[in-house]
Every structure is written in C-alpha cells, then in structure tokens.
C-alpha cells in the first residue's frame, strides 16, 4: 500500500461517515418500472421528469432497476429473484410501476407478492381499465388495495382536467398541460406519502448509496486512476461484514455511472462528466444541507491536496473545485 493509497482511504472513509449521510437524508429514492426509455408510447421518461423536476427541499431521485440488476448479475455472484427483491427493497423508499409492457406486468405480480416490497409500491393505471375483470385487477391490484400500504392510483384524464380548471394558475393551460400539472402533483404526493413510512439501508451494500459514494470521491479527488479507484472500492471502511459483496456492488455502481456517462474513463483515469457534476450538484443544492455539504467537501479536498503534496516544492496548496471534462 502506497502513501497515496493511505490518503485515498482516509478521505474515502471520511466521505462515508460525514458526507453520505447528509446527501441521503435529503433524498427520496425511487425505482421506476415500465417500458424501456426508448420504447414508443412509454410513460417512464415523463414520470421521471415529473418526479425530479423540483431541486429544493427533500428531493426525489429516480433510478431504473434493470440497470442495477443487470450489473449485479454480471458481477460474478449468482443471485436468485429473492436476492434481487431484497436488494431492491433495501435500496429505495418507493417503487413506482407503470404496467405498460409484459415485463412491467411481471414486475407488478412479483413485487406485490414480495414481503419486503409489498408496502412500497405506487401503481399508476389508466382509469378506463378500472372496471375490467382482468387478471391484473382481480389479482395483484386487488391484493395491494386490500392487504398492503401500497397505493393504486387510477389516472383519469377527465378528472385531472376538471381539477386543473379550479386552479387559477392552471386553468389557462391546454388540456395536456392541465393533465400533466395535476398528475405531477398527485404522483409526487403519493411518493412522499409512501416514502414517509419506509427507510432504506444506509450502507455501501445499497447500490444507490454506492453511486453517491463514487460521485463524492470523484468530486473530492477530482480524478482517480483505475488502480486507485479499485483500491478505494476494496479497502474503504464500509461498515458491512461481507466486503466482497460490497466491492461487487460498488463495481456495479461504477459501471452504471460510466454507462450513463455520469463519469468518464479517459487515459486510465476516472473523472466526473458535466452531467455527473450536475447530478451531484442537484443533491448538494437541497436547501437544508447545501452549506454543510459544500463546507465538508472543501475541507476534505484541502486536506487531500495538502496530504498528497506535502513536502514537495509546491507545498502550499490552495483549494480548487473539481472541474468536469
């Protein structure tokens, strides 16, 4: 282990203890299930934008479960459906499902019967199918309504327009705008309602928590060589008994961030991209924690630079914010 490795580990451990709890306490994590984002007629992207629109106060951050599941399945360890359901339940406050594809119908049935998930669901359904005696309505939907704390919300465009017309600020909008405005209010309300009854696991075995950790490391260090990143992922003080499982989750989180271009790998070094920095800033700018998080980052960055370059001819280091490429 080199001196630089020791410095990286010390700062990474401080990030876990001081910064990650602040980032997490101001965020509601949501898994959004439905048609793939590139599928025609899918509503996932629309709902995602509705949930993530507001950046102040307690924010809502949306993730696609297939990204995490696919990476974990590639990680070398065999996972069964129960393992993945438990990871899902521990990682997010709410699971929003739009049953609009065969895959999302399957997810609805599986999650409704999962003990760890059955009280975390928000199901968005078209009101025109409300009275249909279908398998979905008579099976998982009926069960969720009668036996769980989950919410089944029937989207009725006519009622949404009527509600918007009663609002002086929304009544001038076209019908599509009225529908979107009221639907956003309702969906955000139910997400917050469900999230208020649920907690997530605040350790690096949580893939969402792991992504935030990698963001924070790259913001503090500005850039990391591949070997340095690997060392941090395998040596940091995770607070978990099984470090191999945590290292696998962290590696999966790293691959997800690279795939979505939130971080970039160039010339053997990881850096935050502009999109990644924007996403991290969205976490940091939430009103109650903005000053505290920025102050802690500034302190860690200055400490890292002074430790890393102490004794060199340019020993007096001033703080410089991480600059994305």
Draw up the topology in text.
Elements: H1 3-25, E1 27-33, H2 44-52, E2 59-63, H3 65-74, H4 81-91, E3 94-97, H5 102-112, E4 121-126, H6 135-147, E5 151-155, H7 157-165, H8 175-195, H9 207-221, E6 223-225, H10 226-235, H11 243-259, E7 263-266, E8 269-272, H12 274-284, H13 290-309
Helix pairs in contact: 1-9, 1-10, 1-13, 3-11, 5-6, 7-8, 9-11, 9-13, 10-11
Mean pLDDT: 83
Provide the number of structural domains.
Answer: 2
**Strand element count:** 8
Query: What strand order characterises the main sheet?
Result: 2-1-3-4-5
Query: What spatial form do the alpha-carbon principal axes imply?
Result: globular
N- and C-termini, Cα separation: 29 Å
CATH topology of the largest domain: Rossmann fold
Instruction: Based on the coordinates given, report the CATH architecture of the largest domain.
Output: 3-Layer(aba) Sandwich
Q: Which band does the percent of strand residues land in?
A: 5-15%
Largest sheet: 5 strands, parallel
Q: How many helices does DSSP assign?
A: 13
* Radius of gyration of CA atoms, rounded to a whole number: 22 Å
Task: Look at the helices and sheets and give the structural class.
Answer: alpha/beta
Helix content: 55-70%
Report the top-level CATH class of the largest domain.
Alpha Beta
Low-confidence stretches: 313-325
Query: Helix-strand pattern, N to C?
Result: HEHEHHEHEHEHHHEHHEEHH
Outline the structure in words:
The chain is an alpha/beta fold and 325 residues long. The chain folds into two domains: 3-21 and 202-309; 28-195, 3-Layer(aba) Sandwich (Rossmann fold), CATH 3.40.50. 55% of the residues lie in helices and 12% in strands. The chain is built from 13 helices and eight strands. The strands form two sheets. Strands 2-1-3-4-5 form a five-stranded parallel sheet, sandwiched between helices. A three-stranded antiparallel sheet has the order 6-8-7. The protein starts with a helix and ends in a 16-residue tail after the last helix. Residues 313-325 have low confidence and may be disordered.
């Amino acid at each position: 282990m080199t001196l630089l490795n020791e410095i990286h580990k010390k700062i990474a451990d401080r990030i876990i203890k001081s910064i990650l709890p602040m980032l997490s306490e101001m965020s509601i994590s949501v898994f959004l299930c439905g048609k793939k984002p590139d599928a025609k007629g899918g509503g996932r992207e629309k709902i995602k934008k509705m949930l993530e629109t507001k950046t102040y106060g307690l924010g809502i951050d949306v993730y696609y479960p297939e990204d995490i599941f696919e990476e974990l399945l590639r990680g070398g360890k065999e996972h069964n459906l129960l393992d993945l359901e438990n990871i899902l339940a521990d990682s997010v406050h709410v699971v929003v499902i739009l049953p609009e594809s065969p895959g999302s119908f399957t997810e609805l049935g599986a999650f409704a019967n999962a003990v760890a998930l059955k009280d975390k669901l928000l199901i968005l359904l078209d009101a025109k199918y409300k009275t249909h005696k279908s398998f979905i309505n008579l099976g998982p939907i009926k069960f969720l309504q009668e036996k769980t704390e989950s919410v089944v919300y029937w989207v009725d465009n006519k009622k949404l327009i009527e509600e918007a017309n009663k609002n002086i600020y929304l009544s001038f909008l076209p019908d599509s705008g009225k529908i979107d405005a009221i639907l956003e209010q309702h969906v955000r309300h139910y997400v917050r309602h469900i999230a208020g009854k649920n907690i997530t696991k605040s350790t690096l075995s949580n893939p969402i928590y792991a992504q935030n950790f990698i963001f924070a490391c790259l913001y503090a260090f500005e850039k990391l060589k591949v070997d340095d990143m690997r060392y941090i992922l395998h040596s940091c003080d995770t607070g978990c008994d099984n470090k191999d499982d945590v290292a696998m989750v962290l590696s999966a989180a790293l691959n997800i961030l690279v795939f979505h271009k939130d971080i970039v790998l160039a010339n053997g070094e990881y850096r935050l991209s502009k999109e990644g920095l924007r996403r991290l800033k969205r976490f940091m700018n939430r009103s109650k924690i903005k000053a505290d998080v920025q102050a802690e980052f500034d302190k860690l960055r200055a400490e890292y630079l002074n430790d890393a370059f102490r004794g060199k001819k340019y020993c007096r280091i001033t703080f410089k914010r991480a600059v994305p490429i």
